[in-house]
Amino acid sequence: MPKAVVIDKKAAKKPVFDNKPLPLNIVKSDVLSAEIAGNKLIVRWEDSLHSQVNYLDEDLFLILADSKNGSTARQERINFLAEKEMDIPFGGEYILKLAVLEKFHVGIATTSEYVPPLTFIPEGINRYLIAWGELDWNHIRTEVEREQRVNWDQQVDVVLKIERFEGDSQTPIEEWRYPGMKDMDIVGGKIKEITLLAVRKSDRSVLKEIFRVYAMPGKEKRVIDEIKVKPCEKSASLELVREVHETDTNHLTAKWEIPDSSWKKVEKAIKETEKKVEDFDVVLKLFYKAGEDWHEFNPMLYKKTFGTGNWFFGNIPGGTTYQAKLVMVDRETKEELAAPLLVSQEIYFPRKENSVTLLPIDDKRIFAYWHLNRDEVYKTMKEKHDAEPGSIKAYIRFYHDYAGGLHHHAHLDREISIDYADNFYLAVDSDRVYRAQIVAIADGWKTEFITGVSNPVQTNRIRPGNAHINYTGFRQPQDHPTNRRIDSAWNTAGYSQGKLIMHLHAHLPFVWERINYGTSGYWRPGGYVEEWYHEAMRETYVPLVRIFDQLISEGVDFKISIDISPTLSNMMRNPVLQEEFLNYVDSLIALAKTEIERTSREEPWYNYAAKMHLREFMSSKATFLKYGRDLTKAFKKFQDMGKLEILTCGATHGFLPLMGSKHIEAIRGQIKTAVLDYENTFGRKPYGIWLPECAYTPGIEHVLQEFGIRYFFSETHTIMLGDSQNEFGVHAPVYVRGSEVAVFARDPETGKQVWSGDEGYPGDPDYLEFHLRGGPLKYNRITDRRGTYKQPYVPEWAEAKAASHANHFMQNRNFRFDYIKNWFWKKPVVVATYDAELFGHHWYEGPRFLYYLLKKLHFDQNQTELTTGSHYLAEYNYNQELYPTPSSWGDKGTFDKWMYGSVSWMYRHMNDAVAEMINLSSWGKERELHYATSSDPGVRMLSQMARELLLAQNSDAGFNISNGHFIDRMKDMFFVNLNNFWKLANMFVTYMNTGEFDEVTLRKMERSENIFPVIDPFVYAGR
Fold first, then answer.
1. 632-640 and 542-553 helices, crossing angle to 10°
2. What is the pTM for the complete model shown?
3. Could you give phi then psi for residue 760, rounded to 5 degrees?
4. Helix, strand or coil for residue 921?
5. How confident is the model at residue 235 (pLDDT cuts 50, 70, 90)?
6. How many whole angstroms separate alpha carbon 94 and alpha carbon 99?
7. Do 540 and 463 meet the contact criterion of CB atoms below 8 Å apart?
């Protein structure tokens, strides 16, 4: 701890600014509910309201008007929505109106003998494409020259005159453009009139008005409801926050803001000293608590500041409380103004104990990291062994955990640095369980164990074991809707030779930021994280819903399996993303209309594809609105009909073997949260789960069984390299030895047939090229997998290929089952698992392939029977049991991708947060808090802590960083979630001790990471 400067508590005066949290205001009327948190306004209304609006001729708007002069501050169109978030200025008073307006109208006037063919398309917000192709310029030229007696080439300009209702530096009220003989332009702003003129070059006098387009903004037809909203005034604030960085150190950041309006109070305080503001420096100081006294931290390190800013304090010792102050210091005398300007909240840093943690990687490597309180280690060695630092060496000692005992493997021991190192990778043997411990040795023989024994980790098996082959059976649930006899034209259920599970893994990380459309007004793909969801919705999930609806309408019976990760299902239900998806699709519809117009003039061989895209976009919007903006309702409908079995996944797709190696509570948090969210979304319990990244390690099965999960999918070698020979191979599930949980392994042949870059269907020359785009639209077929020359896309050719490939896939399954039908004493199963986004996003025709496959399986054969995991187990509950090997479906089938040096540091911080979550949730449980009382502030804080922790644990961050994609963005998301976690942890401790908390900050966090409306934070407190 640095040199102490004791502060006289009695001399301290009340700060100039209170630094109190902002209030949360909620205003309600019969129709509207408005929540004001700082400068955020969140407005909600019932979905039934839309029945009052004729969206063919009307628009629904939220209008925020100044209550004093009636001027409009914000105006937002909210067609089809049920919630809207807006930023509003601090202070003031406003009227919030829910109003119905006439739709925007466009009129055309011309003095020509006929109305010229004119295109006027809104491309986005206040941005329009206007095209006037097919004008008879020869006639116009002749007419002007004859009537006005001018020379067209020398004396005439063609002008596009733009008049706007409002203007600014970018878009003036009146603008003249000179398009020459060009037949289109893009204009922005609030358009009043656009006129195409022939004018005299010398004086700009009008020779002929060729046409005029005039815009008529929608008039207000009726007000449905209105309420008064009054945001609070902006106040001075100082906040001290804990920040997470890559290193194993503690960090604090002070953030402050003093608005200009607040400085009058400062001037008043300074007047008492008979000096001026400019005679003082504003200085930031940090203090820590020792016993009952406060001491200044690093007195020579302080920040001169003014107004707004932040300051970083690194390498902060744990085990004590900190507080920051902004003080006024006289420049000459260096004396402080008696009263500080602002005092931050107190923030406690937990003390980290000496420890060592192991993480598995593959059959030959494990990763070790440790935390040592260096000064304490040296102090202990001095007191117990009279050893000086220079005579002390530290070693990490490894044990084989076998038959209930720890067996020291001295050949694995490694010397480590107490001062500098905190992790390393170790080469080990396969199929072993290892543990570790750090010891300090002085003078070559004086030994002190400075950590406890670590968590156990198991390395992968590289060949099947020789354990006795055993079969067992368990009673399985019979109530899943897919547990039924499938209908078909040829009685497949009666004559089938084998069963096929078609499983789609549907997942995206939880990101709900808005898309930045830039100046274009429509989406231009940049591959950014916030675009992933909308692309996947349009290209994969909406098309899947459409083909399921189509199959049902055509009388085709089918059963397939899909897991929808909780992050994805929560995004589907997120009001902001629902609004954004509508904006996104509308922007693409507008773009496709402009592309149809453009390609008809410039590239007619692409016009057919442009029209195809327009139909696709409009159909996507219609399907999205059909299910009330929430596709989980569609998938629930299909499951209730027995067409789908929907599985769950890890709550945030956390990599369970790594994040749960030290704390099994981390796995329990991921699984229970997923199960609760599934029940809240789909109205029943899940029986199956997709383990994130198919990553399994022994012990996970017990958590799955605890929460009612009956089976999971895995990579092929998970059960092929079990502790005994697998008699059915991948053609039947196995039970994990010691549990009632079954495992279905992926069939490699079906994966290769679809996924392979050399042989897979998606690479066919007639399919749409994924990598080559004309803006957001794709126009070319693959033509040649390795060539750069690409021909125009022909939809009919692609449709025929999708049907042909579906038939080929079906015939191959029939051949397989015909070949192996006599090998086994029960019907074999083939498990074909794929990322859902293969169908549509990566392979545009993928949904059509799936449509034809399901249709052909229904009408054209009776050898291959569709089934689901629950139905197969209900029919065949007697299966072999074995002990699977740790595995994943990632690179090399191991954990390697998630344990590169670029990401291994993340697990230290995850485990620190899990340990604190266990500690605080246990404390809350002791105080009789319960997640059912979700309105209790303490429960809300713990629940939000759990959300932030779960989001930080997602496997997508590590995967993308390892691949070199979006490294800064992935790290920022990780740090934000953990920084929020520690802020909430400090808030919870304060609340439990004093009853005080910051409602607005808590509400903003609940809003910013609004996932898992039903969550049990006490799952971390143990059973």
1. 30
2. 0.93
3. -65, 155
4. helix
5. confident
6. 15
7. no
